[in-house]
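User: Hey, my collaborator sent me this sequence without any context and asked if I could get a structure. I don't really work with proteins. Can you help?
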Amino acid sequence: PHRQCLLPLCPTFPTSVNRWAIILFSLLLGAWTHNFWDAFTHEHGWFVERSPWLQQPVLQITSTTVYMFLVLQEVSTVVGFVIVALVYWRWLRRQSPVTSSESDRWRYLFWGAIVGLTLAISFPSAMHYASAAPLHGFLFWRSVVFRVAIYAPAVVVPFGLIGTSVLYARRSR
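Assistant: No problem. I've predicted the 3D structure and written it out in structure-token form, which is a compact way to encode the shape of the chain:
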């Protein structure tokens, strides 16, 4: 249902100068706002270095101190993801219902298998990384997320080729 709802939004490759200007402006605005927010949420960010409240320790676990800027970074990441996911989900539900001749269950199982395999690959290295650092739990889950993001393409490409061939084999029957 995602592809069928999203494809009409980009029917042709942009060729006009106006469309390219809008695309480039959007990219620049996104990059600028991202860097602006990074100035509040990274240790050597401009606002962090100049705002004592962002340098305040929030949590002390053994020899590791978690500062306000890091809490702000993690919370904004989670909240931002939830907002984007909810807005997309609501938008997708408002689109006209898509009728499909085959069940979409296999697609969700397919992506679930990819996520599961990627997690299985990333857990050992995440455990090794987190055990070497003092803030075990926090760094472990952060390390898992980053490793899943790094390993996912290596898992998706071969599985994507297999999934595509299975899809075409089903359709040709």
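In plain terms: Helices lie at 2-6, 17-41, 46-50, 68-94, 105-131, 136-172. You can pass these tokens on to your collaborator as they are.
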